[in-house]
């Protein structure tokens, strides 16, 4: 079975990236052989739509499941429509996340685990002047 994992680096010793749409890499891992392919996430630095673009990249890679830390609603919807199972809450090294997946220790997600724009790194505060009341 082929699974995708959001990662901070290009090999199995990299950490699972808690962000899906803005992770640096996706590792596509064969769970039987532990062979893998590293794909640079071209949407990581886009101004918008990173989750959807990342989900399209994963769908094209032909994975059966996606393992990540968190997933926003647009990416979740895109992957679900492609028939890809989604597992969130993964932490640690990519190799450890693969083993957790194989042992059934990761729970399949039934919805987004974060709001839109989670991976943007902002504080959520407006920089406008506002109104004095």
CATH class: Alpha Beta
Helix content: 10-25%
DSSP helix count?
A: 3
Mean pLDDT reading: 86
Helix/strand-derived class? Answer: alpha/beta
Oligomer: single chain
| Poorly predicted sequence stretches spanning 5 or more consecutive residues | 122-133
Strand order of the largest sheet: 3-2-1-4-5
DSSP strand content: 15-25%
Provide the number of structural domains.
Answer: 1
Tell the overall outline.
globular
Second rung of CATH, namely the architecture: 2-Layer Sandwich
Q: How many angstroms does the end-to-end distance come to? A: 59 Å
Describe the protein's topology.
Elements: E1 2-7, E2 25-30, E3 36-40, H1 50-60, E4 65-67, H2 73-81, E5 85-87, H3 94-102
Parallel strand pairs: 1-4, 4-5
Antiparallel strand pairs: 1-2, 2-3
Please provide a written account of the structure.
It is a single chain. By secondary structure, the protein is α/β, with parallel strands linked by helices. It has one domain (2-109): 2-Layer Sandwich (Nucleotidyltransferase, domain 5), CATH 3.30.420. The chain has 3 helices and 5 strands, in the order E-E-E-H-E-H-E-H. It has a 5-stranded mixed beta sheet with strand order 3-2-1-4-5, sandwiched between helices. Strand 4 (65-67), helix 2 and strand 5 (85-87) form a beta-alpha-beta unit. Mean pLDDT is 86; it is low at 122-133.
